[in-house]
Input
Amino acid sequence: MHIDETATYYTATKKYNLNFPSLENDIDVDVVIIGGGFSGIHTALELAEKGITNTAVLEARYLGFGGSGRNGGQVMAGIGHDLDKIKSAVGEEGVKTILALSELGPQIMRERIARYQIDADFQTGYVYLGFNPRQSKTLRQWEGLFTSLNTRDDIHYLEGEALQSVIGSRAYQSGLVHMGGGHVHSLNLLLGEAQALTTRYGGRIFEHSPVVEVSYGDRIRVRTAKGSVTASKLVWCCDGFINHLEPELHRSTINTYAFQLMTEPLSDELIARISPIRGAYSDIRPIIDYYRVTRENRLLFGAATPLVDYIPGDLKAWNRRRMLKIFPYLDKVKIDLAWGGPMASTRNLFPQIGTLPGRDNAFFVQGYCGFGVTPSQIICKVLAEGITGGSERYRLISSVPRQSLNGKDNFRALLCTLGKAMHQTAGYWQGRR
Output
């Protein structure tokens, strides 16, 4: 089944009317970046802040066409789903280092919004929610972990009636409030960064310029239908849209799907009941429900199929049923829009960065596994360090091996279903189910 990936809340409410030309000549730059989502624009901006401004970003369609322009906008702590999955590669100390990095994402985002005066509706306040005593125990453990990493922001555990002070739902038993997190209009964040990249630093962006061929060497040549870019370094930032263009990267991620809906505008009273802090929320199950209120008093609610991987025939009805399990009093509320699309996942549920084998000037980043809005801020900062000479944290994260996903082209849905079953089972033993 085909789903419309373009009609989203974000495209309907974007504040930046940016349009970039397609590439129609041959140019020479220091770094060429393929992909105009968070990874591509974050990385280009990080490089520009380091003085590398002679860059070109090539986007096959338009900025934010992929997951960067249709996600939940959740600003939350963490990188990946389960750091125990990479412990054998990075060791106990490596896990601690990555865990410490995981709190940087919201901080980087807030600083960037302030530096470039980006109008992205950033709102503080995130609540992780638990349904049962097992999850409540896990949230208490998270409280200690988060407060050990973050002493700037209010982080506190709630349960019972006290929970109603932050979330208007009786579905939950407990919650962990993290005021360092929150939510953001992710497409406006992306476009605001793109504006800063081009106007302040002179970086070049080309939309509607799909890459048709890459020739590697000391100088890399990237060809589009009407032009080409020659560069000293290349960065692949295609995530779920690599589409065999670079087989080495295509083989190590698999696309699964997430879906969101947007309600009609709600009254101030109803919004205050849903979210007294006007924050963002998710439960802590292996495959979460996530939601937030918007500046326009709408509820944006998202989810993925919890076990069997498929695309629902009626996105509005499917997601509405999930929403009503949490907020039954919204049964008369109309759903204005629903959308969805692919997101690239990895076997270890951890993002991948590094260089292609034997090609030290060809970098890549991919595989956020549905958690890319905030972690991409951290990951791309680390990647930029790798591009400009390396760092200890780049060497650490790029040391996590990529694992092939054999049979993904013919058995995608089956492999995703098996992966979800394993993820759900692991979640039970981790106190998340």
